[in-house]
Amino acid sequence: GGLFIVEDLETSYMDAKPTPSIFGRSLVGSGVGKPPPGNAVSKFKELVEVLHRWHIGVEELTVLGREADSNLFSVTFGAGLALLRKATPEQSLHTPRIRKAYLGAYVDSDSVRRWAKAAAETNPF
After folding, report:
1. What would the pLDDT profile of 32-78 be if each residue is shown by its tens digit?
2. CA distance readout (Å), 107 to 10, 57, 78, 115
């Protein structure tokens, strides 16, 4: 297990002109509702799909990279931060199996694969 805390997520919403910078870094692409990689909150929201990939039948769905995503147990948001909880060995034993039968029968496989490809293109790792 483990807990990763990402702070200063309020920078995801800073989009004043000229492009703002904070802590010596330019905030190019940030702003309310902007896509990743400029908006970290948008990237972390994609983790909701990663947590449900077992139910939609798409094992290869990755947002932060296969190693990080395969160990993800939960995501919690707070004011200006996100908490990513890594699964303990015990929790990993109870991870559901991929439900391949869902893909196509209940879930549009083409749209899911397009989404997975787009999410992978902004993987930071």
Report:
1. 989 988 899 999 999 998 888 877 777 777 888 888 888 889 999 99
2. 34, 8, 31, 12
Helix (H) / strand (E) containing 121:
helix 109-121
| 3-class secondary-structure state, position 25 | strand
Q: Which amino acid is at 105?
A: A
User: Hey, which residues does 103 pair with through a beta bridge?
Assistant: 107
- Residue pair 95/25 in contact by the 8 Å Cβ criterion: no
Tell which phi-psi region holds residue 53, choosing left (phi > 0), alpha (psi between -120 and 50) or beta. Answer: alpha
What DSSP letter does each residue of 45-111 carry, written as one string? HTHHHHHTHHHHT-TT--SS-HHHHHTEEEEEEETTEEEEEEPPHHHHHTPPPP-TTHHHHTB-HHH
